[in-house]
């Protein structure tokens, strides 16, 4: 199966993709369930920068790495500033940002690696996690693509970085678009609506207008179409059709919870 499915291993609940696991990729997108956080952070908050108690977050993070029998010190985190900078990492960056947000790679929203056992670990509450896997040159990546990252086409820039670093080819790379805020819930103001129309001419159905003249932008679909335009094969892309704002039982949502919320985690590594 090359679709997102819900898994539970060692008490940790997460979404993953069977065909990627079979190809030796450890991939997970966590839900909010099963951790030790309380209140707005109930329960599996993985963000160290959102006001939760650090010890609880680190416990949750360790449990997530344990899905793949790994240690938190094998993870690499970046500060995620809604920019479009990509960093290629290897064993020398392991542990950066895993235990302290200040030590995460600064000014960076996308991580790539071709070193097995290096876990790329990024965090989300509505922004779109985009996972990359090149089965030919054995490399993986993950991009944090919110509306700013989508405007900046960080997904395409991540592919370009993989081409440069690992000789990847867009026609060979597999993409998994994880849960994020979708077109049902991501309302945008008219000035952003105009910018989206300018930036994405020729795209199909990425913004819907309601009868009361409200605009809803479909970020996952915009990312999917931009990747296809860049040369990714449509059958190499799998999209989770789960909206984080629509599912309070499964996900934190920055917009739904007015900013007072936790973060889910996107984790990816090469097993070999
Ligand atoms: Zn929704």
Automatic annotation (TrEMBL):
The keyword RNA-binding does not apply. It comes from the Bacteria. The keyword Protein biosynthesis does not apply. One of its GO terms (molecular function) is hydrolase activity. This is Purine nucleoside phosphorylase. SUPFAM superfamilies: CNF1/YfiH-like putative cysteine hydrolases. It catalyses: adenosine + H2O + H(+) = inosine + NH4(+); S-methyl-5'-thioadenosine + phosphate = 5-(methylsulfanyl)-alpha-D-ribose 1-phosphate + adenine; adenosine + phosphate = alpha-D-ribose 1-phosphate + adenine; inosine + phosphate = alpha-D-ribose 1-phosphate + hypoxanthine. Purine nucleoside enzyme that catalyzes the phosphorolysis of adenosine and inosine nucleosides, yielding D-ribose 1-phosphate and the respective free bases, adenine and hypoxanthine. Also catalyzes the phosphorolysis of S-methyl-5'-thioadenosine into adenine and S-methyl-5-thio-alpha-D-ribose 1-phosphate. Also has adenosine deaminase activity. InterPro entries: Cu_polyphenol_OxRdtase, Cu_polyphenol_OxRdtase_sf, Cytotoxic_necrot_fac-like_cat. It holds the Pfam family Cu-oxidase_4. CDD domains: YfiH. Keywords: Hydrolase, Metal-binding, Transferase, Zinc.
């Amino acid at each position: 199966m090359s679709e997102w499915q819900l898994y539970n291993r060692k008490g940790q609940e997460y979404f993953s993709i069977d065909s990627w696991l079979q190809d030796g990729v450890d991939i997970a997108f966590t839900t909010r369930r099963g951790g030790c956080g309380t209140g707005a952070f109930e329960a599996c908050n993985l963000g160290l920068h959102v006001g939760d108690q650090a010890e609880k977050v680190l416990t949750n993070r360790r449990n997530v790495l344990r899905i793949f029998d790994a240690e938190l010190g094998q993870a690499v985190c970046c500060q995620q500033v809604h920019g479009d900078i990509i960093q290629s990492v290897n064993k020398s960056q392991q542990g950066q940002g895993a235990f302290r947000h200040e030590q995460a790679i600064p000014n960076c929203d996308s991580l790539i690696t071709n070193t097995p056992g290096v876990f790329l670990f990024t965090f989300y509450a509505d922004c779109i996690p985009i996972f990359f896997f090149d089965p030919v040159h054995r490399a993986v990546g993950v991009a944090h693509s919110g509306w700013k990252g989508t405007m900046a086409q960080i997904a395409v820039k991540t592919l370009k970085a993989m081409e440069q670093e690992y000789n990847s080819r867009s026609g060979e790379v597999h993409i998994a678009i994880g849960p994020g805020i979708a077109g049902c819930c991501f309302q945008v103001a008219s000035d952003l609506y105009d910018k989206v129309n300018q930036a994405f001419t020729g795209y199909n159905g990425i913004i819907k207008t309601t009868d009361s003249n409200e605009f809803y932008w479909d970020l996952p679909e915009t990312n999917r179409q931009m990747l296809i335009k860049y040369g990714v094969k449509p059958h190499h892309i799998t999209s989770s059709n789960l909206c984080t704002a629509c599912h309070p039982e499964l996900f934190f949502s920055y917009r739904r919870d007015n900013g007072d919320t936790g973060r889910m985690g996107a984790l990816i590594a090469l097993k070999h």
